[in-house]
Structure formats: C-alpha cells, structure tokens
Amino acid sequence: MTFPGLLNKIFDLVLNPLISLLFGVALLVFFWGIVQFINSETSDSKRDEGKKKIIYGLLGLFVMFSAYGIIRLILNTFGIELQTNYLGF
Known about the structure:
mainly alpha; elongated
C-alpha cells in the first residue's frame, strides 16, 4: 500500500466522520445558544448562558474550519492528492 493510499484510508475511516461529528456538535451548541438567548427575555443569567454557548459554538466552528485549512495546506505542500474530498469540499 502506498503512502497516499494509506492517507486516503485514514481520512475516509477516521478523520472524515470525526470532523463531521465535531462540526455537527459545534453547530448544535451554537443554535442551542441562540434558542436559549431568545427564550430568556427576562432572566439575565440565562441570557448570559446563551451568549456563552453562542461564543463556544462559533469558536468550535472556527477551530474546525482552521483545522481543515491546515490539513489541506500540509497535504498541498507535500503534493499529496486525496481520492475523496475531505469534508465534502
């Protein structure tokens, strides 16, 4: 098995599902924070909790997009072409 073939297997079996799961969790936290922020008009503590969830969700999405960019940069630097698109992009 060649090195690019091994990388394709790793991306297909491990990284793609893991990254997709983490994107989904971050997006879920973000939207849950929005719902919590909107529903708690009178309670300042609940609004603050909603704001924190929104920030954590956005931070998680930023980290995941950055990790994707760094992985693509490293792969392109070494000239490694993947057979499948990483994260569907």
